[in-house]
Amino acid sequence: MTLTKIYSGKVRDLYDVGDGTLILVASDRMSAFDVVMRESVPDKGRVLTAMSAFWFGHLGNLASNHLIGLDHPDAPPEWAGRMMHVRRAEMLPVEC
Fold first, then answer.
1. CB under 8 Å, gap of 24 or more: what pairs does 70-73 form?
2. Which end of the chain is more exposed for a tag (fewer CB within 10 A), N or C?
């Protein structure tokens, strides 16, 4: 199966799996004031993914979310610990 990159943001990249689901990959890129810096923060993507997984797991009984899992058989090994396999959902455009 081919994963197709459909979006690259300041910190995360989004891939279409092809079965109606997506893969979010958190990078080590650093941004400030909507500008992506040349420097990166080692393991930032892994930390962001772990924090997201923690809160999705702990709040899942209060509200449903898009998280399917933290791995996918077609994902490259370098994405381990920094990817989330998710359902397509309508985004709520909130930033804080």
1. 72/17, 72/23
2. C
- pTM of the complete model: 0.87
If we measure between CA atoms, which residue out of 1, 2, 12, 4 comes closest to residue 91? 12
Domains and CATH numbers, the chain: 4-87 (3.30.200.20)
pLDDT tens per residue across span 54-87: 999 999 889 899 999 999 988 999 999 999 999 9
Asked if 29 and 11 count as a contact pair (C-beta separation under 8 A), the reply is: yes
Structure token pair of residue 78: 């370098």
